[in-house]
Amino acid sequence: MSAPSEAVRAKTLSERLGIRPAIVELGHAHPAVRRVLQGAGGTLSFLVTLDDDRIEALEVEIGIGHRGFEKEVESRPWQEAPPYVARLGWAGGAIARIAYCLAVERLADLALPPSAIWHRTLVCELARVTDHLARVAALAAAIAASAAERIARSAELAAMTLLETSLGGSPFTAGALPGGMTAPLPEGFDATWQAGRGGLERALGRLSLLLLEQGSAVDRLMAVAPLGREDALAWAVTGPCLRASGVARDRRRDDPGLAYAELDFSVPIGTLGDDYDRLAVVFEEVRQSLWLVEQCVCRMRGTERGAAGAIGVGGEALVVPAGEVEVALESSTGELAFHLVSDGGPLPRRIRCRAPSFFHAQALPAVLRGARLDDLLPTVALFHVVSGECDR
Amino acid sequence: MKRPRGGLFAAVRGVPTWLRAISTSLSGRARRRSRAATAPSPDPVVGRPAVDSNLRGRAAANAASSPPTAAPPGDADALERLMMGLVERGARVLDSAAGRGSTDARGGSPKEPAVVELDDANASTVLRWLREAPGLAFDELFDLTVVDRLPARPRFEVHYSLGSSATGRALRIRRPIGVEPPEVDSVVPLWRNADWLEREVWDLFGIRFRAHPGLERILLSSDFEGAPLRRDFGRAADASEVAPS
Predict the structure, then answer these.
(1) The predicted structure's pLDDT at residue B49
(2) A155, A165, A227, A166: which is closest to A197 by C-alpha?
(3) Helices (H), chain B
(4) CB proximity B147 to A under 8 Å
(5) Measured by CB atoms within 10 angstroms of the end CB, which terminus of chain A is less buried, N or C?
(6) Handedness of CA A218, A221, A223, A229 (dihedral sign)
(7) Of the candidates A254, A322, A339, which has its C-beta nearest B145's C-beta?
């Protein structure tokens, strides 16, 4: 008697009711998908197999945004890669440029002036604030929290404006170059930062109220799509989503580069790895990053700004001896690494971008198994799969 | 419409964020103190930066409550066992900084991962041993990619970046492919996130992974012909020779 009832228990709800599982396609042109994922590039497609209203299987399709980045930069000199690297993300592109330049400097044994180190740290943290706010805006769009979405988008815009002011242009045109930056931190940045910081902190407070404490939002996030510690490590999830799953790992603390060893900051760690934890970790990281920017601004106050001492500006060729290096940085999406291979010639042998979004997109089916269909987009928004780096 | 999310969490709802068991780990300042106690760093004002961010390194993943130390007890033994085990199984340990050949069995520490070179004969054995040997447990695959060394032979090298969540050690593996047409064993049975990484290599380099659960293109469309990241693609390429579709 136990054998037939076990066979019944093993069937899904749909099978027992005689309903075939529904397969729903949420392509990248679907209006809900477009609305939510627009800020991150919007080139993911989903094929969802539903059992009643639970996700039984999920197929994630990437690659629509593939532009041949790695092939392109192989045929250009090392110092011409940064504008391509910057297009691996929006605000995240600024961090990607820094990671690439750190790798080139390591391989070519270039010294970096201290003003550039502080400037890069400041840019890295401002870019993190901007990208995290984009993630929060996408999440708010996904759970139809329209007030929160508006606040998050305007805060993101304010942060992006601060980032562009600090860089001297958009991340696509200005930022890190091997050996320095395209331009030093502008003279009036201190005042601009003091003026803008309050607005960001107020926006963060309002968003926290609307998304972490308001019942309707918390209902959409609490205990949704939990990711356990072992699974997170097995899928090589990194960044805020790994920390939300309870793994105390942050490259800025464990392997500090740039100026992080001189700075004071805390790293938020979650417990369950559900959507609520991911969002709460992101919020706290924004607060910590604002504090880090404040520290960088204070440290750079009154010091020698330095000229933009970058290699390659004006046509100097960068000589990179043979060898290879892998440099990873804690980007806003996760651990972004550049694996560079040089054979001593004028052009690179291989520039490989290890993009955290690629790994997160791969982990989505495991994370979302058993979740409801309307948990798909909030979870994807919180993982912040940026198509610029995922598809490259 | 409110939907119940389960009794365990019903009580947690409405609790302010800062109480909801979100702990913060060791702050940067304390980390700086412990670093100063263990290793002197060069003056940040002069010359190279005080810290290099370059190579993967992690404190033990469960160090949330204790300050990270320079080396956990028994670490030197573990490193020695790792190096001896690699050499016994026929691997070559290279100088990590430039990847040049050297018989020095150094590296394998978190800050300076060793670069280990394998070949067709020992690759599967060594990778399985690295994944499964007790005390080593390289359970994380951080990255998997290929470098095309054309016109040098062997042409393709598969690069693995491994990590250990327990010991915090990182390791980089280089594995030239000696067979033509190029194919290697899939490491999906060892690290499940190798799935998409190997699909990307198949897609862009045309290297086949034996026993992969579903080897098909991932970035390019399924009707694309050729392996574009090969160095001879787009130059004097014979498309039929490189098409993996």
Answers:
(1) 23
(2) A155
(3) 7-10, 28-38, 75-88, 123-132, 194-205, 239-242
(4) yes
(5) N
(6) negative
(7) A339
For A212, half-sphere exposure in the C-beta direction (CA atoms, 13 angstrom radius) is 24
Residue B30: phi, psi to the nearest 5? -65, -35
Is A49 in a helix, a strand, or coil? strand
What are the tens digits of pLDDT across the range A245-298? Answer: 999 999 998 888 888 988 988 899 998 899 999 999 999 999 999 999 999 999
Which tens digits make up the pLDDT trace of B49-71?
222 222 222 222 223 333 343 44
Q: Residue A141 and residue A148: Cα distance in Å, rounded?
A: 8
Cβ-defined contact of A264 to B28 (cutoff 8 Å): yes
pLDDT score, position B109: 40
Residue of A nearest to B110 (CA): A255
| Residue A144 in contact with partner chain B when CB distance is under 8 A | no
Q: Classify strands B140-148 and A350-354 as parallel, antiparallel or unpaired.
A: unpaired
On whether the CB atoms of residues A41 and A388 are closer than 8 A, the answer is yes
Four-residue CA torsion sign, A284, A288, A289, A290: positive
Q: Which positions ≥6 away from A172 have C-beta within 8 Å?
A: A83, A86, A87, A93
How far, in Å, are A141, A213, A277 from residue A243 at the CA level?
Answer: 23, 21, 9
Mean pLDDT calculated for residue range B173-181: 91
Report the Cα–Cα distance between both ends of chain B, in Å, rounded: 49
Which one-letter DSSP state was computed for residue A38? G
Token couple for B177: 């492919």
Euclidean distance between CA atoms B146 and A283, whole angstroms: 37
Confirm whether the ipTM is greater than 0.95.
no
HSE-up (13 A, CA, CB side) for residue B186: 22
Burial class (CB in 10 A: 0-12, 13-18, 19+), B26: buried
Nearest partner of A355 among B244, B134, B183, B143, judged by Cα: B143
Q: How much is the pLDDT for B167? A: 81
Phi and psi at residue B137, in whole multiples of 5°? 45, 65
Q: What is the pTM of this model?
A: 0.83
The answer, for A100 touching chain B at a CB cutoff of 8 Å, is: no
Tell me the pLDDT tens digit for each residue of B222-233.
999 999 999 989
Provide, rounded to the nearest whole percent, the portion of chain B with pLDDT above 90: 32
Residue A5 is predicted with a pLDDT of 55
Is B18 strand, coil or helix? helix
Pairing of strands B183-185, B170-176: unpaired
Which residue has 């500090």 as its token pair?
A256
| Length reported for chain A | 392
Q: Which residues pair with B218 in a beta bridge?
A: none
Residue A104 to residue A119: CA distance in whole angstroms: 18
Residues of A in contact with B235 (CB under 8 A): none
Secondary structure of residue A342 in the 3-state scheme: strand
Number of C-beta neighbours around residue B95 at 10 A: 17
CA A4 to chain B, closest CA, distance in angstroms equals 30
Instruction: With a cut of 70, say whether residue A191 has pLDDT above it.
Output: yes
In the block, which residue shows the tokens 């750079």? A300
